Amino acid sequence: MTGQRGTSASRSVTSEPIGRPAPLARQESTATRAVQTAERITTEWGPTAGRILLGLVLAWFGYHELVHPSLWTGYVPILQSTSTAAILAVLAHGWVLLVLAVALVAGIAPRLAAAIAALLLLEIVISLTVTAGLSDLTLRDVGVLGLAICIAGAKGQRLLLTS
Fold first, then answer.
1. Domain parsing of the chain, residue ranges
2. Angle between helical axes of 84-106 and 22-67 (0-180°, round to 10)
3. Is 68 helix (H, G, I), strand (E, B) or coil?
4. H or E element that contains 16
5. Helix or strand run (H / E) with residue 135
6. Rounded distance, CA 8 to CA 16, Å?
7. How many alpha carbons lie under 13 Å from residue 137 in its C-beta half-sphere?
8. Do 80 and 86 meet the contact criterion of CB atoms below 8 Å apart?
9. CA–CA separation, 97 vs 66, rounded Å?
10. What is the DSSP letter of 71?
11. Measured on CA atoms in the order 17, 19, 24, 26, is the torsion positive or negative?
12. Among candidates 76, 102, 80, which has minimal Cα distance to 89?
């Protein structure tokens, strides 16, 4: 009988679940895999998404500066907003924004384009802060400046046009 008790005891030990029930363990493993997949995708595609979104923001403002330059001349420091020079400055700025946007979206020298955009945005943030102080507009541009700086430093981007 001693042998039967040992057999019976080993059966009861092996038949009872140890630790967590199997379905919960599988759910945790699935959740872990999902998190790891999301991390991998974010790491691989995050800089590319940021680059394209920065390009879209620059394209938006560049387009509006070219279509309605008189709405933007008030942001030109030193020049009177009604002057021809202010309108020409806004038009030139709009073209620079569009060229940078195309470079960023198309993946043409994206780190250089983002670095130039960062310098341009830094000038805008400084000008806005000096003339109007901190405002919603200024802080929005600080966020876009931060994105440009991040993209300028990001390596390993995807969807690039290379020679």
1. 19-153
2. 150
3. coil
4. none
5. none
6. 13
7. 11
8. yes
9. 10
10. G
11. negative
12. 76
Q: How many helices (H) and strands (E) does the chain have?
A: 5, 0
CA dihedral 55, 99, 112, 148 (to 10 degrees): -30
pLDDT digits (tens, 9 = 90+) for 18-41: 655 556 666 678 888 888 888 888
pLDDT tens, residue by residue, 124-142: 999 999 888 899 999 999 9
Whether the predicted model's global pTM rises above the 0.70 cut: yes
How many angstroms separate the Cα of 23 from the Cα of each of 17, 26, 27, 28, 32? 11, 5, 6, 9, 14
- The whole-number average pLDDT for the span 64-87 is 93
Reply yes or no on whether the pLDDT at 147 is more than 50.
yes
Residue 109 phi, psi dihedral angles, 5° rounding: 45, 55
Higher-pLDDT residue of 36 and 148 is 148
In 10 A of CB 108, how many CB atoms? 15
The per-residue DSSP string of 73-98 comes to GGGSSSS-TTSHHHHHHHHHHHHHHH
Structure tokens of 1?
A: 């009988």
Residues 6+ apart with CB under 8 A from 50: 147, 150, 151, 154
